[in-house]
Amino acid sequence: MTVFTPTLETQRAFRDALGSFATGVTIVTCKTESGPMAIAANSFSSLSLDPALVLWSPAKSSRRFPAFEAARHYAIHVLKDDQVALCQTFARDGTAFDGIDFSENAHGVPLINDCLAHFECTQHAIHDGGDHVIIVGEVTRAKMTEGAPLVFSKGSYGRFTDSE
Q1: Which CATH class is domain 24-151?
Q2: pLDDT reported for residue 48
Q3: Cα within 13 Å of Cα(11), Cβ side
Q4: What's the chain's Rg over C-alpha atoms?
Q5: Per-residue pLDDT tens over the stretch 11-62
Q6: 1 or 100, which is more confident?
Q7: How far apart are CA 92 and CA 138, in angstroms?
Q8: Which helix (H) or strand (E) holds 159?
Q9: Which of 2, 50, 106, 163 has its CA 20 to 30 A from that of 21?
Q10: CA 136, 25, 61: angle at the middle one, nearest 5?
Q11: DSSP H or E segment with residue 151
């Protein structure tokens, strides 16, 4: 067992401890003046049922941050367990839509087809969160399909399995 106080010197240990919490994996998309933009995020969470609110938290240091901070409309896509390559593609390049099966909604937001679920959002609020911001979106439309979610924990991708 490792016990520490989170500081700049223990930042790696803090990240490792946070990585113990398994999360789903999402791709967030928006429309920009130069075309569609995407970013991989595991900081997604539900927030409220009434109104229908969700949140996610991009890093301020990301080159893609300004596009998502400014986006009035965006979509959050929950990935299936067989979509690791899709996640890795957008983790490397937010404009890598060539060969990706997607359409656009009425606001021009890219909607990636064949994801486990997606949530079309209108920006509701942005809150400071240290080196990240918390973006709250009101869900205006949602879509879901059958399948198993892609899971991320301790730096690795995996799949959810039932406990026996």
Answers
A1: mainly beta
A2: 95
A3: 3
A4: 16
A5: 988 888 878 778 899 999 999 999 999 999 989 999 999 999 999 999 999 9
A6: 100
A7: 28
A8: strand 156-159
A9: 50
A10: 60
A11: strand 150-153
Band of the pLDDT at 126, cuts 50, 70, 90?
very high
DSSP 8-state secondary structure symbol assigned to residue 64: T
State how far the Cα of 107 lies from the Cα of 51, in Å rounded to an integer: 21
pLDDT (average), residues 128-157: 94
The DSSP bridge pattern shows strands 117-129 and 132-144 to be: antiparallel
- The CA-to-CA distance between both ends of the chain, in Å, stands at 27
∠ CA 144-58-118, rounded to 5°: 10
Q: Is 30 helix (H, G, I), strand (E, B) or coil?
A: strand
Q: Which two tokens stand for residue 76?
A: 């959050």
